[in-house]
Structure formats: C-alpha cells, structure tokens
Amino acid sequence: MFWNETVPGLYQRSLGGVERGMLSAITSEQLISREPIQIRCIAHFSAPTSSDRVAQAFKDAWKALRLLKSPDIATTFGDGYKYYKVPSSQELEAWLNESFTVTQTGTPVHIAITDRQLRPGWLPVCYIVPQPTEDATSKGFIILFISHWRTEASGAFKIVNQLLDYASDLLNGTSTREALLKHTLGSEIQLLTPTLEDILMPDQHSSPEAKTRIESYFADYYSKLPCIDFPIQGSPSAGPSYVKVNQRIYSPAPTSSLISACRANGITVTSAIHSAYLGVVWHVAESSKRNRSYACVMPAQVRKRLPTSSPYREQGCWNSAQLLMLTAPAGQEFLTRARGFRKQYGLADQETWLHEDMRAMSERMLEPPGTSPAEPEALPFFTSMGVLDGDLILSEHGGMKVEKVAVWADPTGPGIVLSLWTFRGRLNIQISWNIAFHGDGQIQEVMDMIDTVLAVELEVKMGIEEVRGADCLY
Length: 474
Description:
- The protein is about 35% helix and about 25% strand.
- By secondary structure, the chain is of the alpha+beta class.
- A six-stranded mixed β-sheet has the order 6-7-8-3-14-13, sandwiched between helices. A five-stranded mixed β-sheet has the order 12-15-16-9-17.
- The protein is built from 15 helices and 17 strands.
- Strand 7 (about 125-130) and strand 8 (about 140-145) form a beta hairpin.
- The protein starts with a strand and ends in a 6-residue tail after the last strand.
C-alpha cells in the first residue's frame, strides 16, 4: 500500500510530482480572495420526485462517495504529504455538514458560485441548487467545487457522475443504503489513491533514456518561446475580478456533420477546433507578435488510458492530467495545423510516454526553465474532454436525467481557456476568462470566428442551439 499509518487512524503518503506542481501554482498566489484555478463542475438534472427527497439523496450520496468510492475527497495536504484521517461518526457528520450545501430554491447558479467564493477552503464541496417546478417533480443543479491539484475537469465529471449514480440508487434501489449500513469506518482507506507516477510506474525509477527523451521534449518546447499570446485589455498587474463563461451548444445535426467532415480530412473534432482557435488567436494578436509560434501545455487524461482492470479508472478524485507541450509555427494553413495537432496528441497513447517517461516528466516539470525565454502572461489555453456520455457522465441515471453540463477552472489571472466536449450528441465550445484582463467583445469575436473558420475550411454550418452564461458574473 502506498499510504502509511503514522498514528492510529491517520494515514499519509508523499505528494507526487503532478500534485506538487499544481499545489505550487495554486498556493504561490498572494493576497487573493479565492483559490486560483479551482474547478467548478455543473450538471443540470431533473428527477421524478420531490426536491426534498432529491436533496437528501444527494447528501447521502456525498457520504457514500467518501466511504464507498473516493475517500480522497476528504484528504488534506501539508509539508509535502497528503493526509487522510479516519473519522468518528461525529467527525463524519461534521465533515458532511461542512462540505455539502443545499441552497434556497430558485437560487441562480452564478449566485451560488459567488456565495461559495466568499467562504474559501481546500476541501471539495458539493452544492445542490434546486429550481422551482410546477408539479411533484424536481430539477436543479449539482455544483462540485474541487481543487485542481486533486483532479482535472474529466475527473470532476467522473465524481459528479458517481454522485448521480448513488443518488439515483438511494431514491430507487437498496444497494447503496445497504453498503452504507454495513460500512466500518476506516475500511475506506483501501480506496485511497496513489500518485499518478505510482499508478503508471509502480516500483520504477526514471531511466537515463527517459530523462534524455524528456530533456529533448522540453528543449523543443522552449525553443518556441516567447510564443503567441492573447491580447490583454486592462492592466496585467490588476487584481482578479469576476469570471465570465461563454458556452455555445451546437445542435446534433451540425455536430454530426462536423464529425464526418473531420474524418474525411484525416483530423479529429478536437484538432479541428484547436486549429481554428489558434488561427483566430494569431488573427487578433498584436501585429508585432503574429510571427511567433504557438507553445502551450494541454492536459492529456491518463485515466481513460488505464486498462479496464485498473481500480483507478473509475476513481475521479486523483489528478490524471499528464501535460502535453504542444507547438505550432505561425503561418500554417488550417488542415496542416490540425493534422499536426492530431499527431502531437498521439504522444499520450504511447506506452513509452505513459509507463517509462512519467516520472522523468514530473521531475522535469518541477525544475526551473533555466535561461529560456519566459512564457507570456496571457496564454490561449485549450482543453478537450471528448464525448462525455461515452465515458465520463451519463445523461440518464434511473429516473434521473442530466440535461446540460459545464466545467471550468476559475481563472484569477490573464489568459483565456477554450474547453470543448460533446454531450447528448451536441458539441459544446466554451471560453472562460477573468473580466479584469479581457473583454466581452474579444471573446465574442473569437467564438464567431471559430464558427466561420470551421464553416469555410470544412464546409459545415455550425448551427447554434443555445448560448449559456455569457451575461453571468462568477
């Protein structure tokens, strides 16, 4: 076991390189009012029963998640270690009351999120936000707040999916309730997760060959710096303000047409949108910077690349993001750039990269860049989660249904993040940004131009079904 009991009931393990890197980025921020890049994962659900029953089911589901699936949601950190304390019954209830909240019916999602920001803390928190209905059914939102060092967006969706599974069974079945009644406090420690490095390379150290490969990888990335950035409107030294999220949901027909057009051109939906996005970034960049290359990290989710026999594949509360360091030269045409990105994504599927280079990569990420040029302050980040309801979050859980989802990591500094996924046959493209550094008009232009590029290059008309969140402040 990777966890050691130091005193009765208290377990610890060393933080991994990926965890330490994320914690360093999060805890180094000074004098801010909220946790940087905290993940907010939201699911809009409906259920054929009363709101009170649903709220209690989700509260019990949150307890079940800790005891039966992911005790990592109750771990703490400090001094280079991750800790888990086996709770007494009273401590379990205190944790539950602290980390689970049901808001007043009708509370807007953005109000629930800003309410949570006024009460910062390092533990994951679950909010249920009921919405009014005209009959005996219920609808509302689940909001998961979780630190980025604990997991990534895909893992957050996994956690929300497990909550929905437990809640549905608590409403309609018996297995979860029976498992909770039989549970002995402390037996959940066997579910605590190792580090990403120990999952992929148990009992292995970095080889000289792995270190050489990783040094070459970094050298190529650093050779592209300084890279293209996204224009800042406002002062880069300004303190963080509210966040905005512009989410476009595209109808099933254009989503299907886009998938077919990408296949016909030897690219993927992810690489197509990535290429269109970067083409727009070069277009809106300052003229003096348009000859710069693109260089930016993108998380590749290791969880779905584990064998189905792995006990960690279905665990959501561990950070499975191994960073790809992607690059592209200025001046490439759309399809060349999209095919280049698809090839670079392929690194994440290589056995060498997964099972021989992981430790060397983590170790190198923690080292200073040396004499390489610094990255700009406002990077155009990009992340893709693929088809959510194929692996991460189902649209139906018994009688409970999930209508729409969203996820973003709270940006407290300059830079924008484009995220994309498909859910219920609908492509979602979303950009999140902090209004202290970027304006609504900038984001609207980027979103519109992405649609235009896809329409021109792939001959697909991007029919928008719904635009969400653009007028809300978080």
